[in-house]
Design a protein that fits this description.
Helix content: 25-40%
Structural class: alpha+beta
Number of strands: 6
CATH topology of the largest domain: Immunoglobulin-like
Strand content: 25-35%
Order of helices and strands: HHEEEEEE
Number of helices: 2
Radius of gyration: 26 Å
Largest sheet: 4 strands, antiparallel
CATH superfamily of the largest domain: Immunoglobulins
CATH class of the largest domain: Mainly Beta
Strand order of the largest sheet: 3-2-5-6
């Protein structure tokens, strides 16, 4: 056991000893502590299972070549794109290309995109397009 591992082991024992002493002195708080542990464990499990039921869909768009007033919009003046699912912004940061991988639960959603130029001006939302999200399930086995 290395020098750092020994100190970690000693520190772990001290912390655990103090924790058990505190727990025995505060019996009324045991229930609260147990409840919190169970609550956080369930929250983690729910997040894991919800994530497992999500599907991903690769989306693309055609970059605009002009502004609303008809003047040219060079690609160098496009800062990126916002993507929307059922009217709510889906990405936290602009996507630099006209492509995005959206993760959503199984179902059908209205997908839209919005262009942002280097000056920070947003376009109107693109016309919506219905997209089906379906979790890719394994193929059935072949019975011989």
């Amino acid at each position: 056991m290395g020098h750092n591992a020994q100190w970690y082991s000693v520190l772990e024992e001290m912390v655990m000893d103090k924790f058990w002493v505190w727990l025995s002195e505060n019996k009324g708080r045991k229930i609260v502590l147990i409840f919190l542990v169970i609550f956080f464990a369930l929250a983690v499990l729910q997040a894991v299972f919800n994530r497992a039921e999500a599907a991903s869909l690769n989306l693309t768009c055609v970059p605009p070549t002009e502004r609303e007033d008809g003047t040219p919009l060079p690609a160098s003046e496009i800062a990126g794109y916002w993507w929307y699912r059922d009217g709510a912004k889906d990405n936290d940061t602009l996507t630099p290309d006209c492509a995005y991988t959206m993760i959503a639960p199984d179902g059908t959603f209205m997908i839209q995109a919005q262009t942002v130029d280097t000056g920070g001006l947003d376009s109107q939302l693109s016309p919506g397009k219905q997209k089906q999200f379906q979790t890719a399930r394994p193929l059935n086995p072949t019975v011989e």
